Amino acid sequence: MNRVRWFLAAAVFAGCAISWAQSDESSERKAYADKVRETYNFRFGKDKISVPGNADVAGNDFIQPTAFPTAEYCGRCHQEAYSQWRQALHSNSFRTPFYRASVNILARTKGIEFTRHCDSCHNPIAVLSGGLTQNSQADRSFDQDGLTCTTCHSIQKLQSTNGNGGFVMGVPAVMVDEDGNRIPGEVPDQEIRDHPDRHSRAVMQGFYRTSEFCAACHKANLPNPLNDYKFIRAFTAYDEWQNSKFSTRNPLTFYSTGFTTCQDCHMQRAPLTLKDDGAKHGTLVSHRWPAGNTAVPFYYGYDEQLQKTIEFLKSGNYLNVDLFAIKKAGDDGMVAPLGSTAFQLAPNDVVQMMVVIQNKNIAHSLVPEVRDLYEPWVEFQVTGAGGQEIYHSGFLNPDGSLDRRAHSFTNRPVNDDGEFVDNHKVWTIHSVAYDNTIQSGRSALVRYEFRIPANAKGPLTVTARVNYRHLRQSYLNNIFGNDHPAYPVVELASRTRVLNLGDNPPGGREPQDNADWMRWNNLGIAYLDQLQYADSMHAFEQVVKLRPDYADGHTNIGLTYIEWEKYSEARASLEKALELSPNNGRALYYLALVERRGGHRDEEVADLQRVVEQYPQARDPRRELGIAYYQRHDYDEAREQFEKLQAIDPDDLAAHYNLAVLYRRMGMKDKAAEQAAMFATKQVDPGAPTYSLEFLRKNPEISTESVPWHMHTDLSHEAVETAGGQPK
Which of 571, 393, 391, 590 has its CA nearest to residue 499? Predict the structure, then answer.
């Protein structure tokens, strides 16, 4: 590298110096790669460097770790970015005990070569330099830097959006020559300052500003080479974004907004505190990537990163907590929405409280990615005058563990013995027993039941809050033992209402409350996800009463009928929606499903074509249009749709299945066999539900949580089944 710097600084003919430098680097790389190949464990196939991961590098051969300029080198001109990066998750992606705990188990139990799956994202230099093999001689000093500046900024191409490190890295360079050829290694700072355009061409690509760039690692699956079983979806933060209102690509979202990328949320511009040559107008996009990980900055004592993360979690109006309704034992209906409807309460009343939690402004699920490790939950508390505790769910025990009956937005992956997959041993996952996460733009209904004591003094204070801890207490205990400090708990959102014993007149609206029509709409969405169609229908009917001109309200009624398999009843509401909004893609899509059920294939195709024209990157309309063409025996058109669907989502099962059939019909036997094989490994194992059922049988408190309409209560069944809530 010293020779490279000398050439660039001292050569009279810069073109010759660059050519020599590139030749020198190429020779050094070849010698290094030849040496690595002599002992590298190509367990998963000849020349497959990163499998079970997907990371790739230009030339498809090993590259020496010293080819990557260090973050300290970049930090000489980019002090602000370097300072932020050092405390951020990217720079600590490999070394933290939270990550090492599970990846070390994988290395010990299956072999270090299997960790290429994880490290294609967490430590790509280790993968591409051939460091993840038995008896590797690679210099691993780069481990402490995780994802450095020149790992992200050397990526030259994206593979399809299937994650697991789905990128192609170029030979690291911070400059290109006048012809655009990459100049390997470090160059003098002044050379960069003299040619900032060439520096930018080396380290920036247009796709760096897209969500697809993030998808290279923020989407993952567990492939057969890793688990010796079959393809299992791990996390799909990118897919969740693409299906959310923020991508503006999906006509089927319940709400709409402007286009927002991952970077718009997680790399917002902020004023400089340190000098940075990459700043614009005194600001720099954040290289902290604030998100949900409070554990890493807490562990390392990165106080600034921790504070910025907590501010991020609290700042975005991401969730809306709505104490929506109450229902008293013995009454037929519920009082809703609270604040707009009068009611009465009295001592000894048995009260059900309906809490609606809306994932309002998160472009992915609550929570995304490794849901088995995150710990978000609802804390619900009722107190009387003077702080008398009447009911409390979602508290933390003295040992830091979460109340076992709390409503948490997590999942429980299980292995083939029906046991919870602890310590994030993802290669043993065969099924998911339950998943209580809330998708973007959707809502969850959480029910609580309590008795107002006979001696209660009013008013009652009712609070529901969504708390969040990274990571769950049992995982922290697995890593550190039981003797470790309490990790931060952050309140993401909350709502409190004061209820009188006696009369409660309408009133009490607060700024964070949604309008009543939206409150009913969110309730309808929650009921729909819980398969309670009659209740969902009632909620959406209230929406159109309050907003008769709201096209989506009528569409939601039609959707509920479709989910209820009452297709003919759905037509009137969908046609009303189209009367209000004539080219509404969402209403057209659901009307097409009604036309299909009625055998009106031409109308079905026409409706879906109109949707696809408006939303060319939407998955569902293309899938259904492909099916519609197939049913009309328009096989070329069907194939085109499924191929375009596969370009959007390479894991779509319907695309694999139908392309296997279509290719075989067209005599493309090899392509048909390829698609059939992908369908076979990606479809759900028919035996997987038995693993989940075994887990739920052994864990009754989680079994209750897996029932969508479950009730959180400390009352016995006998106490509830009383007239007017009075004990027998």
Answer: 391
Read off the tokens for 707: 């029932």
Residues 6+ apart with CB under 8 A from 262: 211, 214, 218, 241, 363
The residue assigned the tokens 């939690």 is 357
Tell me which residue of 412, 477, 411 sits closest to 438, measured CA to CA: 411
Q: 80 and 272 in contact (C-beta within 8 Å)? A: yes
- Omega before 367 cis (within 30°)? yes
Report the half-sphere exposure of 46 (CA within 13 A, side-chain side). Answer: 0
Rounded-to-integer distance, Cα 155 and Cα 144, Å:
20
Hey, how many other C-beta atoms are within 10 angstroms of the C-beta on 723?
Answer: 8
Place of tokens 């008795």: 451
Alpha-carbon torsion (608, 609, 615, 617), positive or negative = positive
Helix axes of 533-546 and 551-563: crossing angle, nearest 10 degrees: 170
What's phi and psi for 460, nearest 5 deg? -95, 140
Q: Which of 286, 296, 293 is nearest to 309 (CA)?
A: 293
DSSP 446: E
Write phi, then psi, for 489 (nearest 5 degrees).
-115, 125
Q: What is the pLDDT of residues 693-727, one digit of tens each?
A: 999 999 988 888 889 889 999 887 544 454 344 33
State residue 20's pLDDT score. 47
Q: Specify the residue for token string 């009188």.
A: 500
Q: What Å distances lie between residue 707 and 243, 336, 442, 714, CA to CA?
A: 25, 24, 18, 17
Percent of the chain with pLDDT strictly greater than 90: 87
Cα distance between residue 603 and residue 596, in whole Å = 8
d(CA 137, CA 325): 65
Q: What is the pTM of this model?
A: 0.93
Return the number of other C-beta atoms located less than 10 Å from residue 444's C-beta: 24
Q: What are residue 338's DSSP bridge partners? A: 341
Residue with tokens 């189209």: 578
Cα–Cα distance, 645 to 654 (Å, whole number): 9
